[in-house]
Amino acid sequence: MYKSMKSLNVAKVLKERETMYRLMISQLIYDGYDQIAIQLANVIQPVPECPPSDRLLHIVQMGTQLELEQKASKGETDAITRSLGIVKPGAGIDLEFDSDVIYHAPEASSYETGYITSFKHPVRAAAFSGDGQIAACGSEDKSIRLMDVERVMAGQTSHEDHPIIKTIHDHQDEVTCLAFHPYTQILASGSKDYTIKFYEYSKTSAKRSFRTIQEAEFIRSMSYHPSGDWLLVGCDHPVLRLYDANTLQCFAGFNPDEQHRKSVVSCAWSDNGKLYASAAMDGSIKLWDGVSARCIATWEGAHRGDEVCSVAFSRNSKYILSSGKDSLVKLWEIATGRPLIIYTGAGSSKQRHATQAVFNHTEDYVFFPDESTGTLCSWDARNADRQNLLGLGHSSFVRKLVHSPTQAAMVSCGDDAKIRFWVNKSRGDTNGTVSEKVVE
User: Fold this and answer.
1) Is the dihedral of CA 77, 80, 82, 85 positive or negative?
2) Rounded CA gap, 197 and 76, in Å?
3) Digit-coded pLDDT (tens) for 251-301
4) Helix, strand, or coil (residue 87)
5) How would you list the strands of the sheet with 275-280, edge to edge?
6) Considering only CA atoms, which of 98, 106, 75 is closest in space to residue 361?
7) Contact (Cβ atoms closer than 8 angstroms) between residue 228 and residue 245
8) Secondary structure (DSSP) of 302-328
9) Which of the 8 DSSP states describes residue 300?
C-alpha cells in the first residue's frame, strides 16, 4: 500500500512539472521570446505542442497575492520584534517559496570581537545551547569553559564579572566536540581519551561528569536528537553510533555495506528528528532514517572526492549544508539528493585542516572560514552572492566556528589557543575595548 501511494505521489509530481514547463513555453511564446521557447521545447519535447498563452502570468499573480495575504497575517508581530531590535529566527531558508526576501539579520562584516579568552593549547570544540544563552569551548589542554552569552552581549567583561561561569577539568586528553542537551541543562563532551562525559552545568558544585561512556575510538562529532532521547556519535571509525541518552545503550547499523569506508568526521540530526546525516573522510555524505537507522541515501564524492568536513541541516529539514577540504560549501536538497547551490571563493587551493560551514541564526547567510587568508567568507544563502569579508584576527588556523541559534553572535576557535566571541556592532557596548582572559 505504501509503495503504491508513493508511486502515485511521484506520478502526480511529474505531471505537475510537465504542466509547469508547458506553461513556461506558452508564456514565452506569448511574450515574443520564440527562440527561448523553442530551445526549452526541444529539451522538454511537449506533446501536443504548446500554444501562446499568458496563463502562467495569471497563476503567478494569484499566487503572489495569496502569499502577501499570508505574510500580512503575521507581519504585525514581525514589525514589533524588529522595532525592538530583535531578529526572530523563523522557518529559515526555503528555496521552494523564497523569492523576494527582505533580510534583517546583519552581514558577517558587521560583527566585531566582544570577548577573547586564551587557553594553554589549541581550541577545536565549541557549541551553543539551544536557547543561545550559554556557549561552551573545549581545548587540547583538556579543559572546557562555559560562557554566559548575555554578559558578553552586554559588554560585561571585567575581571569581577567576566563571562566565563564555569571551567571543567575532567578529560585525560583533548576535548574534540561538545553538544548541549536540547531542553535540560546537560552538556556532553567527547575527547581523544575515548570517552563521552555528561555534565549538569547549572549546578555550581558540578566539576566532574555524572555519567561517562567509554568508547573504542576517540570521539569526533556528536549531535542530540531534538527530543534529547538519543545521542548520535561519530568516532575515529567508519561505523556511526547511536546511544540511548537514558540507558547509554549503544546501537549501530546491522548492515556493514551501509557504513562509511573511513572515519566519520561530522554528524547531525534534523530538527524534525526524522533524519540524521553523517560525513566522513571517504568523501561521502550519508542520509539515515531516524526511526529504522537505515541508510537511505549516499552522496559519493560529495566534495570532489575530498574529505567532507561538516554537515548541518537547515531548520526546516529540507536541506543539508556541507563543507569539504576542496574549500567549497554546498547546499543539498534532500528530496533530490543534488547540490542546489555551491558557494565558491573561499581559498584558491584545498584546505589542510577541517573546519565548518554554518548558517547564521536566520539562515539568510552562510559563513565559512578561509584557511588561506584567515578571513570569514560570507554568502547570501539563497543565491551564493559573496558578501564582505570579516578578518577573524586569529594568528593561526581557525578550527571551529559556531553561530548562535537565536541572535547575531558567534564563536571562532583557533590553533592559536584563543577563542573569539563575535557580536553584532549594533548590540552591546564594549566601550571600544575588548577584554582578554588568559590562563597561566
Assistant:
1) negative
2) 45
3) 987 788 999 999 999 999 999 999 999 999 999 999 999 999 999 999 999
4) coil
5) 264-269, 275-280, 285-289, 295-299
6) 106
7) yes
8) TTTTSPEEEEEE-TTSSEEEEEETTS-
9) T
